Amino acid sequence: MSEVAQAVEAIRKLRPRRVVLFTGAGVSADSGIPTFRGNEGLWRNFRAEDLATPQAFERDPVLVWQWYEMRRDIIRNAKPNAAHLAIARLHDAVVITQNVDGLHKRAGSGDVVELHGNIFRARCVREGTTTLREAPFASLPPHCECGAMLRPDVVWFGEMLSEPAIARASAAMMGADLLVVVGTSGVVYPAAGLVSLHRGLSVEINPQASSLPSACTFAIPARAAEATPPIVDAILEGSE
Ligand code: OAD
Questions:
Q1: What is the pTM of this model?
Q2: Which fold would CATH assign to domain 1-32+80-116+161-240?
């Protein structure tokens, strides 16, 4: 029996009531958004760890903003794929995502915890106020009306995740009877560590082995857009 078939059978048997999805860049790869790690994740030979830091922004805000504008452009033109759309059919599920692309919400998911922020929000470095800004900026770095610089409202390496987001994500992980992990390398903490809080059935979808701190019950070596819809179908069958 294939891994998908085994996972589907276990989900049907369990009939899960409280479902949590934990997603990473791989869930958006099928929408044409490059992941961070791996060759396709490199931009002008910079790694995310070199650009997504307060130090990089202090040193060269224009360079950091150019990277974000390039990614904002790709994301603006991307559409949710079959994995985002399948997940959005789970009206009662909690979606915990490391992604800043907003595609789960665009697909229709109602309960989304964006652990690392949102790439279409900008934040004043002086006042801390945030604004939604989807269109490209006329010049880089952009500035707030108060005169201070704006930065992307995302969590950078070395920065704290929002307390309410972590609390909400932890509670959901602990209370879930099914966890579905889609497209994360599992190397960035504290996000990856949340998976260890879950006890119970878990299914991971990723074409490559991840480095999550605890192994899932079933690991499906397939693309998100291919393997997520049958898993969602099995969850919905159980709730009928
Ligand atoms: P990564 O880029 O580290 O990992 C992407 C994962 O997706 C890899 O394990 C791939 O094997 C998998 N993948 C690739 N294509 C896929 C597909 N079509 N379907 C399913 N999986 C696929 O991305 P994250 O784990 O999300 O943080 O990275 C975590 C954090 O590191 C990001 O949120 C970001 C980054 O630097 C910050 O910016 C703070």
A1: 0.97
A2: Rossmann fold (3.40.50)
Report the separation in Å between the CA atom of 143 and the middle of ligand 1, taken as the mean of its atom positions.
30
Q: 228 alpha carbon to ligand 1 midpoint, in Å?
A: 16
CATH superfamily, domain 34-77+119-154, is SIR2/SIRT2 'Small Domain' (3.30.1600.10)
pLDDT given at position 45: 79
**Predicted pLDDT of residue 1:** 81
Residue 116 designated active-site: yes
Q: Which of 84, 91, 104, 116 is catalytic?
A: 116
Q: Where are the domains of the chain?
A: 1-32+80-116+161-240, 34-77+119-154
* Interatomic CA distance for residues 42 and 44, integer angstroms: 7
Q: Does this chain's domain 1-32+80-116+161-240 share its CATH topology with 34-77+119-154?
A: no
Answer yes or no: is the C-beta of 195 below 6 A from any ligand 1 atom. Answer: no
Low-confidence ranges of the chain (pLDDT < 50): none
Q: Long-range pairs for 34-37 at CB < 8 Å and ≥24 separation?
A: 34/74, 35/183, 35/185, 36/185, 37/185, 37/187
Atom 33, ligand 1: residue with shortest CA distance:
98
**pLDDT per position as a tens digit, 93-128:** 999 999 999 999 999 999 999 999 999 999 999 999
Distance in angstroms (rounded) separating the CA atoms of residues 88 and 155: 25
For position 131, what pLDDT does the model report?
96
Atom of ligand 1 nearest to the CA of 223: 19
